[in-house]
Every structure is written in structure tokens, then in C-alpha cells.
Amino acid sequence: MRVRCAISPDADDLFMFRALMLGLIDSRGLDFEIDTADTQALNVGADVPAERAPAVSAVSIAWYPRLAAQWQLLPHGGSVGRGYGPVLVAPMGPAGLPELGALRGRRIAVPGTTTTAYTVLRLMLGDFVPVVVPIVPPERVFAAVAAREVDAALLIHEGRLTFDQHGLGLVADIGAWWGQTTGLPLPLGGNVIRRDLGAEAIALISDVIRESIAHGLAHRAEAIEWLLARGGPLRTAAEVDAYLRLYANEDTVDYGEDGRAGAEALLWRGAEAGLLPAVPAIDWAP
């Protein structure tokens, strides 16, 4: 059975699927084809008829309500922030770094209006003018800030570790805000699987992807070397290690009870604020 997967080109997603990409585990007769795209493109690409969609896709948790009729959320593969998450950064002005409230109504670069980061920033800040700057190439958002196309930038993935190299300062960590507000971790992204594949195929595919994640955790040093060899915004083993500690860890093997509660709280709060469609509850795959 051919299983087409769509994931981001970021280190955590590649880490999860490395064992399948390199044939390091038994795929149990499944033929995995793995493509990459940026977060916004992945979200949009999952919101299409089943015959045009991949079997498995990485998506933003905040986008799940729009996909729930066609997709289940896998219990693994999540990028979960525990007191940390995407960051809002800005250049120093004459008066120093702007306060969070000073950015209300201003132009803020976002990785996409379908992302969890965007939804949480809306909950946190209220109104602002979103300017979509795709995360690929990663330098584009920093160029937008430098050219004053935007007043600040909301950074996801590796950008949260490299912004200081571009002369930017931290205004707020939205994952920290979420944790302080809810007492829960913030699941940012996850992997969904198409319902029409059927219960037997869903269970098998889920098991194999779980094994791929577990293989990465068990062979972390080798995975870091492989990621460095592929290139990307993280240039040293220490940088890749720091990033994986954030978003490719035991929470990635299973969200856990509080991780699932965090995802449910995100959807409930987003719907209550009129930012997301209401769904009864997340339908978790096995």
C-alpha cells in the first residue's frame, strides 16, 4: 500500500520520519512517499477532497476543526510547547523594544493565518494586521523586518532560536503566555490521517509512524548528524539538539493526558473567540 505523507521541512518533522525515509525500520509492507511543504501550504493542502489529499499530513492544531470531517488526529507526532512556543520579536526602536500592547493594530509577519501561532497571538493580542510571510526560505521573514515591511514578526520552528542573530529582541513567547493563562501545554502542530483509509489501515500506518519517531529518539545523535548534513537554518549540533529538545521528545511519541487537554482547550478557546469553527471534540486515531 502506498502511503503519501506531507510534512514540513523543519528539523522536528524530518526527525520523526527519518527512519521511514532511510528504510531504517520495517514498514510492514507499506510504501511511504514523503513530501515537504511549509506550514501554511500543508494546512491548505489537507483541506481538499480525499482523492487529492495525502494519506497523512502535518497540520496546525488550530486548523484541525476545518479538517475534522475528513481526518483523525494521530496520537503521536505532536510539537508540544511546555511553557514555550512561537515567539513575537521586533527590532529595537528609539525607545527600545516595543511593549506587547504597542503592537496592537500594527503589521506583524505571521507564517500563515491557518497556523496555531496566529490563532494564539490573536487570543493574546487582539487585533493586528497580519502579513503572511512563508517560513521557506527562513531568511525571508528577517528581511521583511529589516526592510520595515512589518513592525514585528511571529516566528515558529527554527526561527525562535535564531532571531537574535538578526538583531531582533523578544517581545513575548506565546507558549509561555498560554501556559500561564491555562496551566496547560500548547500543542502547536500534529499529524492527521484520512478517515477513508479505514480502521485497519489507519491503525497499521499509525503504528509504523510511531516506530519511526521512537527510532529517532533511540538514535538521536545519528539523527542530528543527518539533519546537519541536509543543511538548514540550524548550523551546529548544539542548535539542532536544542530545537529537538523543544519539539521532538517524549511528547512527540504521545501527547499525554495534559497535551490532549491542551489541544482541546485551544480549540475551545479559539471557537469561543470566534476564531475557529466549533467541534465537539478531537477525534484521536489509535
Would you mind describing this structure in some detail?
By secondary structure, this protein is of the alpha/beta class. It folds into two domains: 2-80 and 187-272, Periplasmic binding protein-like II (D-Maltodextrin-Binding Protein, domain 2, 3-Layer(aba) Sandwich); 87-182, Periplasmic binding protein-like II (D-Maltodextrin-Binding Protein, domain 2, 3-Layer(aba) Sandwich). Helices cover 40% and strands 19% of the residues. The chain has eleven helices and eleven strands. The protein has helices at residues 11-21, 39-46, 116-125, 139-146, 159-162, 174-182, 199-218, 220-230, 237-247, 250-253, 256-272, and strands at residues 2-7, 31-36, 56-60, 71-73, 79-81, 87-91, 107-110, 129-132, 152-155, 168-173, 186-194. Strands 1, 2, 3, 4, 5 and 11 form a six-stranded mixed beta sheet that branches. Helix 3 (116-125) links the parallel strand 7 and strand 8. Helix 1 packs across helix 7. The longest helix has 20 residues, at 199-218. It is globular and about 60 Å long. The chain starts with a strand and ends in a 14-residue tail after the last helix. The relative contact order is 0.21. The mean pLDDT is 95.
List keywords for this structure.
11 strands, alpha/beta, 5-stranded mixed sheet, D-Maltodextrin-Binding Protein, domain 2, 286 residues, 2 domains, 6-stranded mixed sheet, globular
**Could you list the spans in which at least 5 consecutive residues all have pLDDT below 50?**
none
Number of strands: 11
Structural class: alpha/beta
The CATH class of the largest domain turns out to be Alpha Beta
**Can you give the mean pLDDT?**
95
SSE topology string: EHEHEEEEEHEHEHEHEHHHHH
The fold-level CATH name of the largest domain is D-Maltodextrin-Binding Protein, domain 2
Instruction: Give the distance, in angstroms, between the N- and C-terminal Cα atoms.
Output: 19 Å
Name of the CATH superfamily of the largest domain: Periplasmic binding protein-like II
- How many separate structural domains? 2
